[in-house]
Amino acid sequence: MVAMGPSLSRSWAAQVWAGTEALVIVVDQGECVLAANPAACRALLTTEAELLGRDVVALVVPRERPAFRHELRGAARSGLGFTHEHELRSGVPSDRQSIAWSIARISQAPPVVVCTGVDVSSTRNEFEVLRGRAVTDELTGLPNRAGLLEHLSARAGSGASVVFCDLNGFKAVNDTHGHAAGDAVLVQIARRLKRTVRGEDFVARIGGDEFVIVAPPDKDSDFDALARRLLRATDQPMILPGPIVATVGMSIGMAVLNKDEDPVNVLRVADENMYRMKSRRATTATNVGTAGL
Questions:
Q1: Burial of residue 95, with CB atoms counted within 10 A of its CB: 0-12 exposed, 13-18 middle, 19 or more buried
Q2: What is the pTM of this model?
Q3: Which residues are catalytic?
Q4: Of 80, 168, 94, which is closest to residue 125 (Cα–Cα)?
Q5: DSSP letter, residue 277
Q6: Which CATH class is domain 136-288?
Q7: Which among 57, 113, 185, 264 is placed 20 to 30 Å from 234, CA to CA?
């Protein structure tokens, strides 16, 4: 095996430094940039001269700076390597680059840290697209059951109202005019519900002709007023392709996301309240079922 001389080692190192697509930034004990390779400069739309001496933490988006600084100090202190993902702050606001950074100390006295980053934006974007599809109803564009359960879990114990809505007369539209007409009804109902609720309210279609609205608590609002708005919005005739004129009604039940209550159970209670009122009037007329009102 042929030994590699110092000059040859430096030559190869220089080629790797200049040619790699990985972002490499060397950081001193004051967390300032000591060196940056061409890939890092291209990603940041700047030059190495402009980066030298800058706070390296300022190179990531503001919301992630505290975590990035903590990771840098951890690597400098312990000598252990860390891998974290942070969004790079570039000169183009719309260009969101997610970088997986490997942060490790390469010198102890004084401590010098090297940050080596790989652009994982495309992978992250693909993940977000797939995740969005997993929690979105394809027909209406509303969140689906999975998206609803995620939303309920995040707001457990908040006192929000969970409003379960089920259409009356929807099966008749499907049976008489076909599934295309039924789909058109669902799309129009979804739009009407979105227009009727407040901006902070959450609307989901959880399957078939069932919709759920999650309304954060508001001292100036009440369920009866919301129910009346929903019924007025949904009982108006709809013009469907054909042209076809269809009218459906709605039954509504409500439960509250109180403290220490399982969100899935609260959804079940809202569903039961809706069916309790629907069963009292086995017709296509609109009904309202409430809990504790």
A1: exposed
A2: 0.61
A3: 209
A4: 94
A5: H
A6: alpha beta
A7: 264
